[in-house]
Amino acid sequence: MEAIEDRNRQLEIDDRKYIWHPFTQMQDYVKEESLIIEKGDGCTLTDIYGNEYIDGVSSLWTNVHGHRKKELDVAIKKQLDKIAHSTMLGLSNVPAIRYAKKIVEIAPSGLTRVFYSDSGSTAVEIALKIAFQYQQQAEEGNPEKKKFISLYNSYHGDTIGSVSVGGIDLFHSMYKHLLFESIKAESPYCYRCAFGKSYPGCNVECLSRLEEIMSIHAHEVTAMVIEPLVQGASGMLLQPPGYLRKVRELCDKYSIFMIADEVAVGFGKTGKMFACEHEDVTPDIMALAKGISGGYLPLAATLTTEKIYNGFLGEYEEFKTFFHGHTYTGNPLACIAAIANLEVFEEENVLDKLQAKIRHLKERLLSFKDLKNVGDVRQCGIMVGIELVTDKDTKGTFPHKERIGHRVIKEARKRGLIIRPLGDVIVLMPPLSISMDELDRLCDITYESIRAVTEKI
Ligand SMILES: *Cc1c(COP(=O)(O)O)cnc(C)c1O
Question: Which of 42, 53, 407, 431 measures 20 to 30 Å from 126, CA to CA?
């Protein structure tokens, strides 16, 4: 026992001593109690002391069928007996080929080519570079079209290209001198409408403004980048019904490519395999990551149409090649996990079973609106954002210093739930495999944690 206690204390010391955590003010982190995960099973995470928690944000929006899912474990172990990694530059490998075929079969029709990488940021970065390069060199391209349109409150990753099309000031303004210009349109954040209107009386004014922007800039814009249905990282902002479809129509009207960033919303999170399916939309380019490997290994894919792909063909010396490729692109272990992920979707009818959970979650969320500091509750599929305000009428925001979201998730931890806030928005996004009982516990603990923090205000 003593040895384990010693090991745990040493891990805590070394975590603070050696690791620089992402999106984390380390000055605070080193003072707080640490939580070090040792194991996971289903929707449960276990820390080094044996304490158990519900994985309420699916290990940052990645996990799909639970941890230690037998089919995924077995697939990876079997692949390990063959090979862990070989390069895709000039060669190919078996799982990468099999997965590409499988994902094209289920992706919105018209997306026929798969370019692999290893994170959501790179998947978007690749989408941007493809959309740019196409215009420069394709027969049907237009070299004047060099810019991008994106939405305020959007998040597309942390690399310089994906930050350039991002619209969250807190994350992005520091880097403004490093970024390329992108044209920003107001996002449909209905709870805090940029035009002071309310849906549906607004006639979706944000779409009219988007069309204005497109009509002014069409000659210089290659693509619009959008998170379909839900702007995740800015606090689960939901687009009104028909919005995405209309964006597709506008992109067609103004000859602008539509890049759908399905990194967060893909793989069932919205209740369908891809968010674009809700509005029968095929983007020109689609970025996938997070849930792609079931939440097991870093993998991403950028899918494109045949038309875009053809724009990169030519004699070698024309240099129409897409000169891009990350070293671990198409990694066999990650691809085999991604294949197993899709097989579980099929074999266990995951999306069918999910519908009852989504309805149950919707009912459970009704009571949250009674809490005095809950301003808005947003849900799309299994994705939830609960926005906390100082006052429901004024929709006042808490001072940053109060770290209200952070305080709520600390309370949740004490009660056996791991969640992560986005500012003052409490996010819930459990694995699709969560049971009804676990879903109830997730809601109970979240409710209690919000109440525990806000009743003192
Ligand atoms: C998380 C996320 C990304 C970035 O993915 P990483 O794997 O963290 O690089 C990009 N777009 C969206 C919509 C995301 O939610």
Answer: 431
